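mind reviewing both lines:
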Amino acid sequence: MARRHSGKASQKRMHVLDNDELALVFNLKRHSAFSFKCMRCSVCCVNRTIPVNPYEASRLSRRLGISKVEFFARYTEGQERILRLKADASCIFLTDQGCGVHRDRPLVCRLFPLGLLSGPDGDERYSRMPPHPDCLGLFGEDGTVASYFASQKAGPFLARERRLRERRSVKKPRRSSSRKRGISNREPGSPGRKIPRAG
C-alpha cells in the first residue's frame, strides 16, 4: 500500500512507492495511450544495463569507424555484451552534451521509459518503467506507444530484435516463456543483474 507524506499546505504532496508498486506491469500495447518528452537530464544514462545486439553493434561500430569485433572488445563486457560503464557509473557514450551516439543508440535507449516483454508467440507488451526521482521527463497520454516508437525511430531496431528472437527460438529450446528487454539498474562493475527500476 502506498504511503503519502505531506509538508506545508502550500507544497505538493509526494507519493512514496512501496516495493509492490515497483513491480512492472506489462499491460500496454502499441495502441495504448502514452507519451514522454525527454528533458535531457541523463539520469537514465547512469548505472544501467544496456545490452547490445549484433544489429546495434554494426551501427555503433560503423559510427565509430571500427570493426564489430573491436567494438565488442572495447565498449562491452560479459557474454551478454552489455555496454561498459565509466568509473562514475555513467554510460560509456554519455558526454557533457548528452548521448554521444544518439542517432545510433540501442533499442533499449530508444524504448525508454518503456520496457518490452516478448511472448513465445511473438506477442509484445510494454510497461512504463517507474521514473527515477531525478528524472525531468514529462509523461502524458497525448499519443500512443506506436507514435512514441515512431518519434524515436525504433522501427528498424524492433524489426531486428524480432528476427533475432525468431532465430533464437529455432536454434535453442526456450528456457522461459518470455523475454524482457529494457533498461535495468546494476551495481557498478557487475555483469548486468536485472532490477526492474528505471530513471
